Amino acid sequence: MHSVVCIKQVPDTTEVRIDPKTNTLMREGVPSIVNPFDMHAVEAALKLRDEYGGKVTVITMGPPQAVEALRRVKTLGVDRTILLSDRAFAGSDTLATSYIITQAVKKIDSEDAVDLVLCGKQAIDGDTAQVGPGIATRLNMPLVTYVIDIDSVDTEKKTITLKRSVENGRTALCVEYPMLMTVLKELNEVRYASLPNMILATNFKAEVWNKDDIGAEMKNMGLDGSPTAVRKIFSPPVRECGEMIPHGIEQPDVAVHNLIEKLSHNKTI
Amino acid sequence: MGYVHIKKEKCIGCEQCVVVCPFEALFMKDGIVEVIPDKCKECRKCLPACPTEALYLERRERRGQRPEHGIDVTVDLPPELARYKGVWVMVEQQDGTPHSVSWELMGEGLKISQKLGVELSAVVLGENVDGIRREAFQYGAQNVYVIDDPVLKDYRTYPYTFAMTKLVNKHKPEILLMGATSLGRDLAGAVATSLKTGLTADCTKLDVDEAARVLLQTRPAFGGNIMATILCANHRPQMSTVRPRVMSRPYKDESRDGTPIVEQLGLAEEKIRTKFIEFIPDAVAHVVNLDDADIIVAGGRGVGCDEGFSVLKELAEVLGAELGASRAAVEAGWIDYEHQVGQTGKTVRPKIYFACGISGAIQHLVGMQNSDVIIAINNDPNAAIFSVATYGIVGDMHKIVPELIKQFKDKKNK
Predict the structure, then answer these.
(1) Which among B372, B387, B411 has CB closest to A260?
(2) Which of A149, A166, A265, B139 gets the highest tally of CB atoms within 10 A of its CB?
(3) Are A70 and A174 found together in one domain?
(4) B157 vs A91: CB contact, 8 Å cut-off?
(5) Based on the domain organization, do B302 and B248 belong to the same domain?
């Protein structure tokens, strides 16, 4: 079973803020991590390899320093890592990004047939959840998003039975592969790095592919290939500051009484 | 000759200007853009590329009437795309039950369609969907497009993408809205890719530039820490998914009905490589329904333990409320994930939201700040939750919540 996992290096978003004085993004010292959902996609691919044999290839698109994301998954024991990096990729939105990654998967597939493409459900910086469906559509592969269980694989019939999480339950599906899935954190526990793999990862060099390596056309990537553009960023609107009700510490009964008075007065309750 | 100037404090290092500059006059240094004055020809291509308006030219900008939304919209639409007209809302359903976000979108879609002077249409896909078709008219649709086919009984990406793409290519709407649900986000990503158009996920606000007929799509990014307004100026349809419960549901006119525009699917089951096996509903004894709750009593880290939640539960029972929680409380194992409110949980919009021992991290605020009345109880007077609260009490929630239970009970008994 040959799995290709698409991962993204993201800033640890819990630490990104807009400076209220200058209205700019405060980025200093914000660490980069592998998108947490993608780690579970890597784990899912490794588990399938453990059980059914085969190979795990991990790709990421980004600037040269995104190689650190590949180093991280190398410590988990993935077989092959490829960095897609080119100035021409800069400014790509989700449609253009799905094009670039699709070109790369096609090239990997031509060398070594791909059975499964895995992505995290979404990246924590953009939260779009669009690149996975985009790649599946371009590759004409069946798509299942929000996968929470992989029940079984039938390597004879080439089908995977899995469950997808929806608002009020789960749907069980049987899907022919090659297929693409995007996964939830609840799917698995990510393994720890082993010492031999950590040593391998310190000395590793990822393959780097540029636009010519994957035969990508300029008109489909970067700003030219991106229908959407961010035109404004701002801090989330703040609600009008409300009313503080005093004496909560020394006389909670009085504070509560006053609160209920106000709620009744406004006919809220 | 002049050249473009950079407000360094505004530059976010996105490199969009570097990419568009035809003269290679811009480059990145230490994560911020710099200009080579000799190379700059003042072509202005970089100005609209910048999302933060960090670039400007010395010469005074021509004084035009700036639209209210403060965004310069330039459109260069090919004539075949300029013919796309109308606003569409995808009505999502499961086993014949429509998702409430679809009706919220009908209200929003109607406002946009009126501003643009076009019709509002609903799209209903599924099997035996006549009741939903009727409801779509009642919620304000002027047209309803229907594909009713056994293949569409249960949601699967491929047949739904096939159906939606077919309808769009035939009837050419300029705007297509869907709910940001597990179905909507799955479908929208696939449809936008097959139509090669732009899609903005999980919007919390929509507006439209009437002159340019461009949708202004605002959504949270970076886990809710910043908001971004995104445009899809030169492709049609413009597609958005919209988060449930941020828009209000419109009035339902029971007397309305209409004749749908029925299309055929034309896709055989054998062509579909995904087989639906079954739907397994959540096995929670008491189904947590934060979506429809009028009152929510929520607890956070300050609750301190499992037992703390049983006190909140008592308050919830007195008020007929649902129990909510912050991520901290869920991760501490005091309460199930089904109760979680916020960026990674539910977005809620009750009439009253009690936030007890919740500090108010932005990830929590984005999930509840549209509540009508927010009551915050926290022992830290500087807690961020007070900045969104309608009423705040600084104090120990372990003393205040029992007091609330007592006094609300007394009030009820009177």
Answers:
(1) B411
(2) B139
(3) yes
(4) no
(5) no
| B199:A95 CB<8 A | yes
Q: What is the crossing angle of helices B182-195 and B157-171, to 10°?
A: 50
B324 shares its domain with B201? no
CA distance B194 to chain A (A): 7
Q: pLDDT in tens for each of the 414 residues of chain B?
A: 578 888 888 888 888 888 888 888 899 888 889 998 888 877 788 888 888 888 887 654 444 445 567 777 888 888 999 999 999 999 999 888 999 999 999 999 999 999 999 999 999 999 999 999 999 999 999 999 999 999 999 999 999 999 999 999 999 999 999 999 999 999 999 999 999 999 999 999 999 999 899 999 999 877 677 789 999 999 999 999 998 888 888 999 999 999 999 999 999 999 999 999 999 987 765 567 887 788 999 999 999 888 889 999 999 999 989 999 999 999 899 998 889 998 888 888 888 999 999 999 888 988 898 888 999 999 999 898 998 899 999 999 999 999 999 999 988 887
What's residue A220's pLDDT? 95
CA distances from A201 to A81, B231, B398 (A): 11, 41, 50
Answer for the pair B102, B91: CB distance below 8 angstroms, yes or no.
yes
Let me know whether A212 and A246 are in one domain.
no
Token pair belonging to A167: 């608002």
Q: How many CB atoms lie within 10 A of CB B256?
A: 15
Those residues whose C-beta lies under 8 Å from the C-beta of residue A15, and which sit 6 or more positions away, are A29, A30, A31
Residue A14 tokens read as 């819990």
Q: How many domains does chain B have?
A: 3
Residue A12 is predicted with a pLDDT of 79
Closest residue in chain B to residue A26, using alpha carbons only: B12
Instruction: Write the ipTM.
Output: 0.89
- Is residue B154 located within the same domain as residue B99? yes
* Contacts (Cβ under 8 Å, ≥6 apart) of B336: B284, B288, B330
**Candidate from B231, B275, B400 with C-beta closest to A248:** B400
Q: Do B277 and A174 touch (CB under 8 A)?
A: yes
Q: Facing residues of B215 across strands?
A: B208
Q: Which residues of A touch B201 (CB under 8 A)?
A: 127-130
Residue B225 lies in a domain: yes
**Which chain A residues contact residue B222 at CB under 8 A?**
11, 13, 16, 125
Return the number of CB contacts < 8 Å for A and B: 288
Using a CB-CB distance cutoff of 8 angstroms, which residues of chain A are in contact with residue B320? none
> Which residue segment(s) compose the domain that A255 sits in?
239-269
Read off the CATH number of the domain in which B226 is found.
3.40.50.620
Within a domain: residue A254? Answer: yes
Contact B51 A268 (CB under 8 A): no
Nearest residue, CB atoms, B280 vs list A17, A95, A169: A169
Could you tell me which of A96, A99, A139 has the C-alpha nearest to residue A117?
A: A139
Interface test mutation site (partner A, options B15, B73, B267, B273, max chain A beta carbons within 10 A): B273
- Give the CATH number, domain containing residue A165: 3.40.50.620
Residue B382 in 3-state DSSP? coil
Say whether B365 sits in a helix, a strand or coil: helix
pLDDT above 80 for A16: no
